[in-house]
Amino acid sequence: MTSTLQQTEARMRAVVKTGAGAEAVRVSDVSVPAVDEGLVRVRVTATGICGTDVHVAHDQYAHEAPVVMGHEIAGIVDTVGEGVDEVWLGRAVACETYFSVCEACRWCREGRRNLCPQRRSLGSYENGGFAEFVVLPARNLHALPDWLPAEAGALAEPLACVTQCLLDPAVIQVGDRVLVTGPGAMGQLAGQVAKAMGGVVTVAGLERDSDRLAVAEGLGLNVTTSPVQDEAFDVVLECSGSGPGASAALAAARRGGRYVQVGIFGKDVQLPFDQVLYKELSVSSGFASTPKSWTSAMRLIEQGRIELVPLITKRVALSDFASALQAAERGEGLKTIVLPDLR
Questions:
Q1: One domain, residues 58 and 91
Q2: Nearest Cα to Cα of residue 79 among 34, 47, 127, 30
Q3: Do 22 and 134 fall into the same domain?
Q4: Is 48 in contact with 72 (CB distance < 8 Å)?
Q5: Is 157:48 a contact under the CB 8 Å cutoff?
Q6: pLDDT, tens digit, for every residue of 245-295?
């Protein structure tokens, strides 16, 4: 791949997907990127491991190797390029994931840059945040509150993906009975957003999810490991990214209710999709994030309506990425955060 960034002689450590298969993911020394016009360089403080990273590792999500992985990024602005306001220097920020879009297609013009066919994102098509530094457009920056722990800022990106699914347009009304299938990080965030919207939320998981469900309960959400009653919920949020989870969510939705796909399957699954017809379900989703969903996410964080720190269950160094990725594949914990400065 020909990088869009000029390179300096300085070197840094980074997690690079070099070819096909998870065995091609390795920690390497790469050049520290230079900063061109309109760009900023961020010294990464924390990057979250996402289910999408697992899919990229196993070639189940579109990408272009070689590429530095990681897109749930928080850090400190280290350098600004020509034309960028120096007020950003030293600011703690979270980062939108799009490095570039065409800005001309119907989706870009409608503010839906996430759907641009020419979109190139950090961690898949452009070098991302499992590194000591990352370079990205200044327009991607969102200032984090001073009181927010640096590592928690890495969860702003998945929260923006959740608000894209749930708030644009709003899919939950005050008093709605809401089921979340899958108590992983996305399910925990979706449950909190649904609660903030006035929903009465139940998070469903399996017996092996007891630790995750305990976190959800601590966040004020109802939890269950029992089979949920058919047609018992106004809105179902499928966050497990599994066929059984989606099937259970479709069954649990009431007639005339709503089904929202939040999780990514990463492969074709078989579903009882006639439930959509028989019950006249409204089906919606949201791919990645938009500037509008980021605005919503940052407001929720600033207002203290979403708790992020309890979702961080493991912190690892870049050198430990391989074992952390394997743990994510097994579904261990909630959110693992990679800290480049951790030794």
A1: yes
A2: 34
A3: yes
A4: yes
A5: yes
A6: 999 999 999 999 999 999 999 889 999 999 999 999 999 999 999 999 999
